[in-house]
Amino acid sequence: MGYFIDQMNNKIHLDYYPSRIISLVPSQTELLYTLGLSNRVVGITKFCIHPKKWFRTKNRIGGTKNVDIQKVKNLKPDLIIGNKEENNIKDIQSLDGIAPIWMSDIYTLDDAYSMIKSIGQITGMETLSKQLVIDIKNEFQNLKDISLYKDLKGKTVQYFMWHNPDMVAGKSTFINCILEECGFINLTKENRYPEVSLNVNPDFVFLSSEPFPFGNNHLSYFKDAFPNSKIVFVDGEMFSWYGSRLKIAPSYFQLLFEKMIS
User: Fold this and answer.
1) Which residues touch 193 (CB under 8 Å, ≥6 apart)?
2) What angle, 0 to 180 degrees and rounded to 10, lies between the N-to-C axes of helices 249-261 and 126-144?
3) Residues 163 and 214 sit within 8 Å (Cβ to Cβ)
4) 220 in Cβ contact with 196 (< 8 Å)
5) Residue-wise pLDDT tens digits, 5-45
6) I want to staple 78 with a disulfide (CB 3.0 to 4.6 A). Which of 10, 18, 50, 169 is the partner?
7) Which domains, from first to last, does the chain contain?
């Protein structure tokens, strides 16, 4: 083994492949499952809902932003995997010293590919992780080859992920990257997740399933605000999870395209 550099340029040292892993991020938890690490993951968050059997059986160590430090300590991990955006810096600082902490920092698909391969490397699943990246790249290329992608390319979108206040995904987010991979133009010019006034005219308004659970009860509000836009409910996991779920995301986007033009 040896030294590894995470995506925040932190150096960690591992003498052996970790056998007691705690994941603080839902999409990276699912990645660990895909890499066949069922027997080596000892703790996940209450938001790590995939796979369902892990959600039912694995130790839960709190939320992504309110980790139960004592529970983590009691599980005696030899590796903790987190993310700069999804985890609380104070929690990460409190976990320092319990076990090596590998942090991701993801804005683009290339960042996601690097994370997947790095986690494969530090867990001894390098071959599987490299193949997963190849498969994901192929799926996104196949998406760009279909006629519906070409028909919708260049359409404008505003992606809502919170209500009251109304907040959207802006630039410098992974969601923005995925919107662009789907051929859309994100009308939000601000960075990160700004609160917005409803004074633009996108072709489509996306209402995400997470973190705010948009439903039919919100339709009239957005139809009034965007009378010339088509309102579309979208699966937030497909736009924001940057682990192995990326392999099935393009198939979902193809179905979404069909819904958008119907």
Assistant:
1) 161, 162, 167, 168, 169, 170, 173
2) 20
3) yes
4) no
5) 999 999 999 999 999 999 999 999 999 999 999 999 999 99
6) 18
7) 2-137 (3.40.50.1980), 146-261 (3.40.50.1980)
Contact yes or no for 77/19 (Cβ under 8 A)? no
154 contacts 183 by C-beta, under 8 angstroms? yes
The amino acid sitting at 214 is F
| Residue partners of 109: CB distance under 8 A and separation at least 6 | 136, 140, 177, 178, 181, 246
Taking only the tens place, the pLDDT of each residue in 148-207 is 999 999 999 999 999 999 999 999 999 999 999 999 999 999 999 999 988 899 999 999
Secondary structure element (H or E) that encloses residue 179, with its range: helix 174-181
DSSP state of 255: H
The dihedral of CA 8, 125, 25, 97: what is its sign? Answer: negative
Question: Residues with Cβ < 8 Å from 29, sequence gap 6 or more?
Answer: 23, 41, 44, 45, 48, 50, 54, 243
Average pLDDT value for residue range 117-129:
98
Taking the C-alpha atoms of residue 179 and residue 159, their distance in angstroms, rounded to an integer, is 9
Task: Tell me which H or E stretch contains 222.
Answer: helix 219-225
**Lookup result for tokens 């339709």:** 219
Q: What is the pLDDT of residue 197?
A: 81
Look over the chain and give the mean of its residue pLDDT values, rounded to a whole number: 97
Residues in the chain: 262
